[in-house]
Design a protein that fits this description.
- A hairpin with a 2-residue loop joins β1 and β2.
- The protein contains 11 helices and 14 strands.
- α2 packs antiparallel against α8 and α9 (287-302) packs parallel to α11.
- It has a 7-stranded mixed beta sheet with strand order 4-10-9-8-7-5-6, sandwiched between helices. A 4-stranded mixed beta sheet has the order 1-2-3-13.
- The chain folds into 2 domains: 14-42 and 286-313 and 329-343 and 354-374, Aspartate Aminotransferase, domain 1; 47-284, Aspartate Aminotransferase, domain 2 (3-Layer(aba) Sandwich), CATH 3.40.640.
- It has helices at residues 35-38, 47-59, 70-83, 96-111, 128-132, 157-165, 188-200, 269-284, 287-302, 327-335, 360-374, and strands spanning 14-18, 21-24, 29-32, 89-93, 115-119, 149-152, 169-174, 204-208, 232-235, 246-250, 308-314, 317-322, 339-340, 349-352.
- It has 375 residues and is α/β, with parallel strands linked by helices.
- The termini are far apart.
C-alpha cells in the first residue's frame, strides 16, 4: 500500500531527538527552531515526560469516558493554577481542529445561532466547522461549504459589529497571534472591543490558542496580554509535547449537560499523564520566563539582519519577514546549516517556533547561519 501523498516532504528522516536537537538516520544533528509545527514545548524526550508516559502506560493506558478518571480532575486543577483561568471547565479531545470544532458547536448549542465570524488569513484546522472558519478555499470541500462564515480584516471592529448586529452569529473565532497566516496581531484596543461586542450581541468569543497557548508567548495564553475573558479557549499542540491531545476551556456561564459533547479517546489516561508532565516542567523550569527572555534576545539580534522588512509575533512565536521569498533560504538552513525553521502563508516569512527550553547559544547559531547566507 502506498501513502496518500498529501505532504510535500523534505528529504530528512529524524530517528531520535533530545531537547532542541533532532538527529536523522545518518546521525546528523539538526537544531529544531520549529518544534514540529509548535508542538514541542518542553523539549524533545524530556526525561520527566518520558517517565510520566512510561509509568502511566504500565499501569493503565486507556479506558473510556464512562468511568472516573482522577487524572482529568488533576489536569483541570493544574491547568487552572498555571493559566490563571479561574472557574473555567475543561473538555478534553485529541487535536486542534477537534478543539475548535467542539468550541464552535458548543457556542451554537449555547446561543442557538448558526453563523461564524472569522478573520482573514486565519487557520483553525480541517474538520467540518473549523475548516470553513479557515481562510483558505483550497482546503474547504463542497460538503463543508454550506456552513456560513463571514471573514473580516483583523482589527476591523466596524465590520465585526455590522455582522454581529444581524444576530445570526454564534461565535467569533480568533487567533490573537495568527500562526499559519504569518504572525500578524492587532491592538489591545481591538481585542477588548471585540470582547465587548461579543458580549453585547450574545455571541461567543473563542480564543484559538492551539498554537499560541501553553506558555509559548511568555504568557500562558496570548489573549491574556489584552486582559479579555473569552467564552471558550481552544488548546492542543504544545499541550502534549507531541502526544496527541487537545481541549477547550469553557467559561462558567456555559452549562454542561450529559451527551452535549463526547469522544472516545479524548482525555485518556496517557494523554492526561503527558499533559500533566508538560505543565510540571513549564512550572519547574520557569519556561514562560525563558520564552520572554529569549524572545527579547532574538528580537535584538534580528534588528541587524539585511533584507528584513519586519519582525512579527511575540514570545517564542516569531516571524522574520524578508523582502524576498524565503523558500530557498529555508532549504539552505536545513541542508547546509542543519537548522529547522517554518514557513507561513506569507511566502516571505520564516516562522520560528522552538521548544521553550531554547537558550541564547542556539539563537546565536541561527543568526550566524543567516548572516552567512544574507551578507
Ligand atoms: C491556530 C491553529 N488552530 C488549529 C490548528 C489545527 O490543529 P490540528 O492540526 O491539531 O488539528 C492549527 C494547526 O496548525 C493552528 O495553528
Amino acid at each position: 500500500m502506498s501513502l496518500f501523498n498529501v505532504y510535500p516532504l523534505y528529504n530528512v528522516t529524524p530517528v531520535k531527538a533530545k531537547d532542541v536537537y533532532v538527529y536523522d538516520d545518518k546521525d546528523v544533528e539538526y537544531l529544531d527552531l520549529y518544534g514540529g509545527h509548535a508542538v514541542i514545548s518542553i523539549g524533545h524526550s524530556h526525561p520527566k515526560y518520558v517517565s510520566a508516559i512510561s509509568n502511566q502506560v504500565e499501569k493503565l493506558g486507556f479506558y473510556s469516558n464512562a468511568i472516573q478518571n482522577p487524572l482529568q480532575v488533576e489536569l483541570a486543577d493544574k491547568l487552572e493554577e498555571l493559566s490563571g483561568c479561574k472557574d473555567y471547565q475543561l473538555f478534553l479531545c485529541n487535536s486542534g481542529a477537534e478543539a475548535n470544532e467542539n468550541a464552535l458547536k458548543l457556542a451554537s448549542f449555547h446561543n442557538g445561532k448558526h453563523k461564524i465570524l472569522a478573520f482573514k488569513n486565519s487557520f483553525h484546522g480541517r474538520t467540518s466547522a473549523a475548516v470553513v472558519a479557515t481562510d483558505n478555499p483550497k482546503v474547504v470541500a463542497p460538503i463543508n461549504a454550506q456552513q456560513e462564515v463571514d471573514f473580516v480584516d483583523l482589527g476591523d471592529l466596524v465590520s465585526v459589529e455590522t455582522v454581529l448586529k444581524a444576530n445570526k452569529t454564534c461565535a467569533v473565532i480568533i487567533e490573537c497571534i495568527q500562526g499559519v497566516g504569518g504572525l500578524d496581531q492587532s491592538t489591545t484596543e481591538f481585542y477588548q472591543g471585540l470582547d465587548q461586542l461579543c458580549k453585547q450581541y450574545n455571541t461567543a468569543l473563542i480564543a484559538d490558542e492551539v498554537q499560541s497557548g501553553f506558555g509559548r508567548t511568555g504568557d500562558f495564553f496570548a489573549f491574556q496580554k489584552h486582559n479579555i475573558a473569552p467564552d471558550i479557549i481552544s488548546i492542543a499542540k504544545g499541550m502534549g509535547n507531541g502526544f496527541p491531545v487537545g481541549g477547550i476551556l469553557i467559561h462558567p456561564s456555559i452549562k454542561a449537560s450529559f451527551g452535549l459533547l463526547g469522544t472516545t479517546f479524548g482525555g485518556n489516561h496517557l494523554a492526561c499523564a503527558a499533559t500533566l508532565s508538560v505543565l510540571d516542567v513549564i512550572q519547574d523550569q520557569n519556561l514562560m520566563q525563558n520564552a520572554f527572555n529569549i524572545s527579547d534576545y532574538f528580537i535584538k539580534k534580528a534588528k541587524d539582519l539585511p533584507n528584513l522588512k519586519a519582525i512579527k509575533g511575540r514570545g517564542l512565536m516569531l516571524g522574520l519577514e524578508f523582502d524576498f521569498p524565503i523558500l530557498e533560504l529555508r532549504k539552505t538552513l536545513i541542508f547546509k546549516h542543519h537548522i529547522f525553521t517554518g514557513g507561513a502563508k506569507n511566502p516571505n516569512l520564516i516562522r520560528i517556533l522552538p521548544p521553550l527550553t531554547i537558550k541564547k547559544k542556539h539563537i546565536d547559531l541561527f543568526f550566524d547561519a543567516l548572516h552567512k547566507e544574507l551578507n
